[in-house]
């Protein structure tokens, strides 16, 4: 079975199962929350390169939230959007062997449930790539307005081609309450635009985020709040993970770029929530090299704001 058909088959199967559950239980489901996170290397190391920026958002529906996930597959649904720009290090003069430009928009349906003390998140996405997304024009416009390197035609001409690519992901994790500290080890597998397996952990100091649903950003691994429980105060988070990468559509062989098989992410962040519900999150993530010619890793900053007046 060829890889694209294999991915589409399993992604379609997962979507069909969740949609069937949605139709059967629509009367029991309500909107539970919304979350988003903005990531950009200008908030990190200050450069505009490689994994330069993305925004992820999630809208969650399910039965009444009781501080934990339901046990039924498909009872809780998350509609997920991610927009991402990946770029060579220098848009005006890309070096030979640097990665191609990528504009990607993904739209997905995911479910969250708990079995045997393990939290599962799984689902499928359709990832739209290429100039059809308009992200290269948007990126160029931002540089014109805010300042930045001009795009040379070579960057646009060699960007990842127009396509719609199915993708699937499953994550399993478990929270361990250690008093003032919560430990969450996890494992993840992705198949589609990138084929990889990943293991890691996050440690949280403080009460903000406890009893909530947090969703993991695909680029940085930072977890953002989607279902809120009021808790004025702070939480400090540190985490990291390692991955084995089998293949990546973002680094196609025709580009002459060789995928680095191992990846590491190290992250930290701070949640703050005020008494009126205003909440802020800032985090920073170090991403290791993703292809052989990448000369160093990079730091990406993450920002999440929820304002209440």
TrEMBL record:
Pfam families: LpxR. Gene3D superfamilies: Outer membrane protein. Transmembrane segments: none annotated. The keyword Ion transport does not apply. InterPro entries: LpxR, Put_OMP_sf. It comes from Roseovarius azorensis. Residues 1-26 form the signal peptide. This is Outer membrane protein. Keywords: Signal.
